[in-house]
Structure prediction request, 447 residues.
Amino acid sequence: MTFIPQEIIRRKRDGLELSESDIRAMVRGITDDSASEGQVAAFAMAVFFRGMTLNERIRLTEAMRDSGRVLDWPSLGINRGVADKHSTGGVGDKVSLILGPLAAACGAFVPMISGRGLGHTGGTLDKFDAIPGYDTAPDLVTFAKVVRGAGCAIIGQTADLAPADRRLYAVRDVTATVESIDLITASILSKKLAAGLQGLVMDVKFGSGAFMEGYQDARALAQSIVTVATGAGVPTTALLTDMNEVLGHTVGNAVEVCEAVNFLTGTAREPRLAEVTLACTGELLVLAGVAKDMAEATRKMETALASGAAAERFGRMIAGLGGPHDFVERAGEHLDIAPIKKAVYPVRPGFITAMDSRAVGMALVAMGGGRARADQAIDHAVGMTGFARIGAEVGSETPLCTIRARDEAQADMAAERIRAAVTLGDAPPALRPVVRERITADNKETA
Ligand code: URA
Prediction:
């Protein structure tokens, strides 16, 4: 059939439901460039204003997933237990670094395809770039070999996975159409589902450092992702987690890798980070079929952490992807952490009552540890450690955090930004759980 993009755009513009063949044709046009830039933009804007039914969203996700290679794990030697987690992005979010090896030590296989950070949110891939020798772009044979041998491998997006999303996202980015739950759902899921998963856990964040700041928006996105992924054949559970303060003690690339190693080896486990990580990993183990329920998953995770098996899997993955063979034992020696150490004291003593975690993420960007533009190089060595939590009492002896900077001027600039990002009060606020809600396919969303 002849492809006439303007007819498909017209139908969506007029609020009609697109058929599967309309959607497949449009996605083919986006992938092979037979739809012009203007037509892709008009399509995105029509979807933005008119929305998509659940059925359309499932078909769009499937068509975008199928626009490139879809991994087939049985043909790569893994027949069961393949699952993954995806986060909508946060500040200090190093959950994936711990979850991958922890889930692997419990019997799951985690082929995780991650992204780089942009703006205030960090990217998992940037954290792995801080590890000398670690290859975030291996060939498929190496990727599969590491997943088989270590149980997990965390690598970057390849050009042949969901290429339709790359073009559509680039157009959305410059046409004010990113903020469409329908398009975000298809964008995130097309890439994740191309990894050939049996189950997916979504960590959808809300709050000051989140992509979707408002709770109801984040909840709507979580619900959309769960229903669409399940409709496309991948059972999915979402957790809504609080990003109103940084996650864990550290923000930055090398320092976050260090925190992940300390978590895995049991040297330090910040409670909020532990809560999110264990909740996501537990869900993953159940979806992957390696635990029958959360109680069994919890027992498995406790054993894997206490025995050192999870830390050993992390080391195996790093060595398998070209990093040092003794990374877990000597992380401090292998990681380059910036030399200037400066404790940041609050403007007055008090309790931390709120934190603008977006501003904390931007302080890291201002130090060069994150990027404002996608093509920017970053400095993995800078960051912040020892971040105090909301509710902590801070003063002239108890800092908000410690900056790791290249020089004094950079440290002073970041310290000012951190002080401005923290609100102080005279009494500790009521603390809220970090995992706020669990969304499953049973929380029915209708078309
Ligand atoms: N992340 C994605 O991968 N796609 C979107 O559309 C938004 C966030």
